[in-house]
Amino acid sequence: MPSENRVVALVGLGLAMLSVTGQTMAQPLGEVGMVEVAVAVELTCPSCAQGLERRLSRLDHVARVEILGDEGRVVLGLEPGTSVALETVRDVIRNAGFTPTGFAVTAVGRLVEMNGATALALPDDMVFLLAGDQVDALGTAAGADVVHVHGAVSLPTAGGVPVLTIGQVGGS
Fold first, then answer.
1. End-to-end C-alpha distance for the chain, whole angstroms
2. Is the pLDDT confidence value at 47 over 70?
């Protein structure tokens, strides 16, 4: 993962610091919510991308929108303790004439069981089923039911539950 997206946990201060292209946001480490949403999208038209930025900044709980045209990404920084429906983000991007090709989320959430599987619960009744090699180790690695994770999200079809494939646990 590029260093500009690295999440560093400062245990002594009880904060998670997120640095994206030189900007840093702080969120209390235990506060449940999405920290960041990154969307892969081809951004070939700079003036169109500005319109997309305006549309995304109007979404509830979005504190910051970064258009990274050279990287083919849009990054949303969220207000602490909140979340945003990824389907809504996808729809805003599509309605602006772009095609989102992938989602990644950095979040602090509570581990819950959902139909025998481990899931991550966030504010606004948002739940992600968890997948990946690190799922079994989450409970012991976190030492509590609140965990800090980053990974790729697969959106469901027809009202299912999104799947978060964990790529990174904690602030490492």
1. 10
2. yes
